[in-house]
Request: fold
Amino acid sequence: MKKFIQNLPKAELHLHIEGTLEPELMFKLAQKNEIALPYASIQEVREAYNFNSLQSFLDLYYAGASVLVEEIDFFDLTWAYLQKCKVQNILHVEIFFDPQTHTKRGIAFGVVVRGIVKALQKAKKELGISSFLIMCFLRHLSEKEAYETLKESLPFKHHIIGVGLDSSEVGHPPSKFERVFKRARQEGYKIVAHAGEEGDSSYIWEAIKLLHVNRIDHGIRCDEDATLVDFLIEKQLALTVCPLSNVKLCAVDEMKNHNILKLLHQGVLVTVNSDDPAYFGGYLNENYLALAHDLGASKHDLVALAKNSFKASFLSEEEKEKYLQLFT
Ligand SMILES: Nc1ncnc2[nH]cnc12
Ligand SMILES: [Zn+2]
Reply:
């Protein structure tokens, strides 16, 4: 099964680049940039990765991201992930970044984007991996701050395909950002939002009705509302599901109880993704493997999920077709 998954052509659509920061690089950058870390060793960092909620993870994730300072740091981070993609036969990626995590610390928006984009361009040329970049607003911050970030992004619009919404979900519903997302749509950005990860199905409805999302990130709590599931099926509105993340953050108690296969069999356009692989103990192939081992996903299921990853992407119909041909 491992070999089968390895050989599957795959796209990854839900991946926070800051969530690919492995402890080794975190330590190296902390030393270079003279940033104090609350850990004595790499071993201690890994031991701290024991989460009981989204927030317990986010606290460490934002602390970890503080070691990223120079353009080359963002380049090195992104390049390390793209090399992993090459190894795992991931052919196309749509990467999230959180500009406010960095601009809040005085790092210029352009430093972040230029570092990431240089790695994406190198990967296209040297590894044949295609990519898009999506910036996310932090939903625990205000709508005004999201507006400022949107404004800062405009000189780099040619590098950014879409806008997303992440961070602490409960208490920060999509409705808080309705106007800024309207502005983002007017700028031509695609729209995605984390919804229904910890928040209930009303967060998913709001993302659909108020933000007019092109995709839902996570969305696993859609199954609380049969009308919503029917809507997702009818519209083929994709969910970017992250199985290992859901179990690590206790959004799902055990992998054997994950609903991704049930949703797949019902006809929802679900995809498999790794979210923050450095923190959750596995990259994309490990997520597919967990579905096979712990949920009984068949080869047929895994092929359907891999095909969905291209269908749900922001690639053109022609490009999607080119990738889907690889399955025939
Ligand atoms: N799983 C997740 N949910 C919300 N915000 C995030 N930022 C990084 N990973 C996230
Ligand atoms: Zn996420």
About this structure: The chain has a mean pLDDT of 98. The two ends are 19 Å apart (CA to CA). The first strand starts at residue 10 and ends at 16. The first helix runs from residue 2 to 7.
